[in-house]
Amino acid sequence: MGWSLIRLWTILVYLFMFLPVAVVVLLSFNASQFGSFPMTGLSFRWFIELANNDAILRAFQTSLILGALTAVISTTLGVLASLALVRYTVPGSNLISTCLIAPILVPEVVLAVALLLFLNFLSINKSFFLLLMGHVIFTLPFVILVVQARLVGIRRDMEEAALSLGASPIQTFFQITLPLLAPAVFAGMLFAFTISFDDITGTLFWKPGGVETVPTQIFAMLRNSISPEINALGSVMIALTVGLPLLGAAIARRMAIKRGG
Amino acid sequence: MSVEAREARQPWILLSPALTAVALLLFVPLLFIVVYSFWLRTATGADQVGFFLDNWREALSDAFYRDILLYTLKIGVITTVVCALMGYPAAYFIARSKGNKAILLLLLMLPFWISYIIRTMSWINILGVSGALNSTLLAIGLIDEPIQMLYNQATVVLGLVHFLLPFMVLNVYVSLEGIDASLEDAACSLGATRWNSFVEVTLPLSLPGLAAGGLLCFVLGCGTYITPLVLGGPTDAMFANLVYEAIITQLDWPLGSALSLMLLAVLGALVLIYNKYLGMAQLMKGLG
Questions:
Q1: Which of A176, A196, B22, B62 gives the lowest tally of CB atoms within 10 Å of its CB?
Q2: Which of A58-72, A157-171, A192-206, B211-225 has the lowest mean pLDDT?
Q3: Domain B59-287 fold
Q4: Which of B18, B118, B280 is the closest to A238 by Cβ?
Q5: Chain A closest-CA separation from residue B58 CA (Å)
Q6: Contact (CB, 8 A) for B278 and B212
Q7: Do B115 and A204 touch (CB under 8 A)?
């Protein structure tokens, strides 16, 4: 009796989490003129309008470039730092870990203000560069957490074998360590990309006038009223940010099976 | 250089890019806004360098800021409590379920991948004047014209709960997963009722997870300005909205610095207290 109540409650909680998002996807196929109920039929017209909307295409371009650069930089920094923390006994490693995850312990608004004002003081105005630096610092802790968790599982014997067989440390890194690290690097990049692609809190502070990312574009469009176009844009974003990690997980699993088999 | 010395230097070489980034992009900027908060923005828009207490006097003594700070904390508390009440039973169900745990966990992770702005605006489709709820009520004849359900304090809390609930469920789940389910059975076999064994055994053991989830919900909830802008009315501004106004709209950057630091002090104090008693490890379990 108690258990079925808990089950019912859990179902309701999941419905609460997903129903509104499902409605966004449903309404993006709405044939009607207005972005609302009742639905008059199914159509792809709003996706076609999206594809013809220059502002939205520009926002997509900005978000994709920003996300990709953020992923590369943040993962590079994160993998190096994680290697140091997992592979070596560093004095004060607790303090170092706390420093490295500090960007998510500070409220994002405060981080956004501090970075904006400091770089402005250095005569670096709102720009793509500022946006990129902001996204890097904000995604770095997540990358470090994810990469560290995966690194712990990689054994050192193979590297030691390569070194003892005469490979240089650099050769060892690129030929042994990096391939073993690939899933961790991949996971870190995917995570950084998704967080960057979805971010709005910091982005609204850092973005130069006239430049929009997809989330800030949606935010700007909301100022007028909710249109089927916003729902269609939301659906595309959901497909991207949910589809990519699922695809990534599938690839990672396949890679793991191959290696194991 | 000896092998040991090189070995000892290697981790620092690996760490230096990340530590430099955090120092230059977080710690130095934070110190900078501490200094900046004592400068003055003059009417001409230039900054007057110096040591002025005006911004702090305004931020700390003006009842307007104090009221909104208290209001923000209130919204944070309500959001956290609702998340705990909704999330705990769900986390318990996932932890104790046998067959479909993997799919439940995967679904639980999904909201983290869906953009915050989309999840927030999705409620407009549900509660808006021509949204799902009004359309349904109209169709079944319960109401004659649409009700204005959006843009108030309740919808702000609703949006925040929707945004933060997965953090709560995940953290509680992680701590419940670490508790041996046979402990409850043992309590039952010693004569406790199911409910008693839950209250006496499982609940206390899961408190660290509940605290971690609560901290995340509270800190993230109190730091938001997007939800009130999208789902709130003109009088539902939270403290981060004041920061946004000062920095972006009024361009009073020294005042904005002081307000940011106030928010950081309040929420940071909470994180420090949490860290002192429970440590960061529990929080990292839920995040990583």
A1: B62
A2: A157-171
A3: MetI-like fold (1.10.3720)
A4: B118
A5: 19
A6: yes
A7: no
CA distances from A176 to A157, A179, A253, B8 (A): 10, 6, 20, 22
In chain B, which ranges are E strands? Answer: 40-41, 47-48
Query: What Rg, from alpha-carbon coordinates, does chain B have?
Result: 24
In eight-state DSSP terms, residue A39 is P
Domain spans of chain A, in order of start: 1-43, 50-260
Span B12-51, pLDDT tens digits: 999 999 999 999 999 999 999 999 999 988 877 788 888 9
Q: For chain B, positions 27-66, list CB contacts with chain A under 8 A.
A: 27-30, 32-33, 36
Q: Provide the CB-side half-sphere exposure for A189 (13 A, CA).
A: 15
Is the distance from CB of B81 to CB of B161 less than 8 angstroms?
A: no
Contact B30 A10 (CB under 8 A): no
Q: Which pair of tokens denotes residue A244?
A: 């990519």
Total length of chain B: 288
What's the CA gap between A216 and B215, in Å, rounded?
Answer: 27
Query: Among A199, A84, A111, A49, which residue's Cα sits nearest to residue B17?
Result: A84
State both tokens at B191.
Answer: 């004569």
pLDDT tens-place string over residues A95-124: 999 899 999 889 999 999 999 999 999 998
Query: Are the C-beta atoms of A194 and A241 separated by less than 8 Å?
Result: yes
Residues 6 or more apart whose Cβ sits within 8 Å of residue B134: B127, B128, B143, B146, B147, B149
Cis peptide, bond prior to residue B208, ω within 30 of zero: no
Of B12, B87, B194, the CB nearest to A2: B194
The Cα–Cα gap between B11 and B32 comes to 29
Residue whose entry in the numeric block shows the structure tokens 């996932």: B94
Q: Which CATH code fits A50-260?
A: 1.10.3720.10
Q: Report the C-alpha gap between A73 and B239 in whole angstroms.
A: 32
Q: Where are the domains of chain B?
A: 59-287
Q: Does A254 touch chain B (CB under 8 A)?
A: no
What letter represents residue B56's amino acid? Answer: W
**Farthest CA pair distance, chain B:** 85
Amino acid at B234: P
